[in-house]
Structure formats: C-alpha cells, structure tokens
Amino acid sequence: MKYGYARVSTSTQAKDGNSLDGQVMALRAAGAQAVFKETYTGTKTERPELTKLLSSLHTGDTLIVTKLDRIARSASKGIDLVNTLLHQGVVVHILNMGILDDSPTGKLISAIFLAFAEFERDMIVERTTEGKALARQRAKSMGKLFLEGRPKKYSRAQIDHAISLLSDNSYTQVAQMTGISKSTLIRYKKNY
Question: Do 133 and 139 contact (CB within 8 A), yes or no?
C-alpha cells in the first residue's frame, strides 16, 4: 500500500506553494492510494494524522511526502523517523529527494542525510556554546553575573503583588490589572 502525508503549519502556507491541496495532488500523482493530511505545526512530534498514518504502515508499504520538512521540522528529526521506517521495512519516497529503501542507492542517500543531520546538530551545539561564551564575557565586562536562560519578565515584587490580588479577584481580572498573563499567574500560584 502507498500512503501519502501532507501537512501545513498555517493557512498562509497556501501562498508559498505548500498548500494541502497542492501536496495532495502531488502525492496522488506519485501513486499514493490513501492520503493523511493535517494543519499542525512541524515542531510537535505527536500529530494526530501522522500518528494514525504511522500506525497504519506495515512492511512493504510506501510512505510518500512532498518534502522532508512535512514530516519533521529539522533534518535530524526527519532522518530519525525515516530510519525507523526503513528498519520496519517501509519504503520512504520524498518527492524532492528520491526513494529511500534498502537498495544500495537508498542506503547511500540515507547515509548522506544522516551526515547532514549530524552536521546540523553539531552546528547548533557550536553556535550555542559560542553564544554562551560571548554572553559570559559581556556580563563579566559589565561586572555582572552570567545567568543561563531567559531573563525573568516580572520581578518578585510584581509576582507577589499579583498573587495577593488573587485572594479577591479572578485570574482574568488580575491579568487585566497587572498585565501578567493568566497562564503565568497560574504557574506561579502553583509554586507558592
């Protein structure tokens, strides 16, 4: 059986050539007998239609996608998924790259993808390390302590005041009074 998977993150992708309808047409033209489609961000690995599709795949089946980024946000995540499918005996056909299977050509393409995925991971680690080193130097030159992570948006006094307002007001009312979002208030309230 040949399955297709089409995904868009937002409705604006229809304007840049990644519309669901366009993907479905390309998948059908490539031989997909059943197409799973959804509007869902690629950063989430738990996507309802992708989960259904993956549970439907069996040895000898083919998964067709228009581009690798339709099934994963990064090359490394995509390659991990592709390798899992290849080990299960599923052929993966990425229309803008080729067919990945257990043939010598498929193995070569897969190895190249893995090398690029590893390169991508290494570059991210390198950029992160360089960024932290620069931030440490900058903090040191200003006589400050370097703290890793995002700076706090609200001071302790602002949070304490907002939490105290919750005794007489709802989360929505306190959010309107203080400008602190309801979800942030709930998170801090749990920690009190």
Answer: no
| Neighbour order of strands in the sheet with 98-100 | 34-39, 2-8, 62-65, 91-94, 98-100
SS3 169: coil
Q: Which of 38-47, 88-97, 116-125, 127-136 has the lowest mean pLDDT?
A: 38-47
Q: CA-CA distances (angstroms) from residue 129 to 75, 90, 122, 135?
A: 21, 38, 11, 10
Q: Which of 52, 48, 60, 61 is nearest to 3 (CA)?
A: 61
Q: What is the pTM of this model?
A: 0.59
Give the Cα separation of 96 and 105 in Å (integer). Answer: 16
Mind telling me the catalytic residues?
9
What are the tens digits of pLDDT across the range 139-185? 889 888 887 877 788 888 999 999 999 999 999 999 999 999 998 99
Q: Kindly list the distances between the CA atom of residue 16 and the CA atoms of 8, 19, 31, in Å, as whole numbers in the listed order.
A: 11, 8, 24
Residue 159: count other Cβ atoms within 10 Å of its Cβ: 20
